[in-house]
# Entry
Amino acid sequence: MADAERLVGRVQRILRGRQGITQRKMFGGHCFLLNGNMLCGIAGGKFVARVGSEAYEESLTSKYTQPMDFKGSR
# Structure
């Protein structure tokens, strides 16, 4: 859990001072919202982000990315 808390702190520092950002606990982790819509978060000790349908396929080309799966099959 300490690693997840460090990740939360990193995201908080990056988003600090930006308009419309709120934070809440969701999905057993932390979620950051932009104007009430999920932007990114920490789930299962991993950083997760919404990339949108236009960037989805390209985002999966990095060896460090994978589709988000809350069922634990990945």
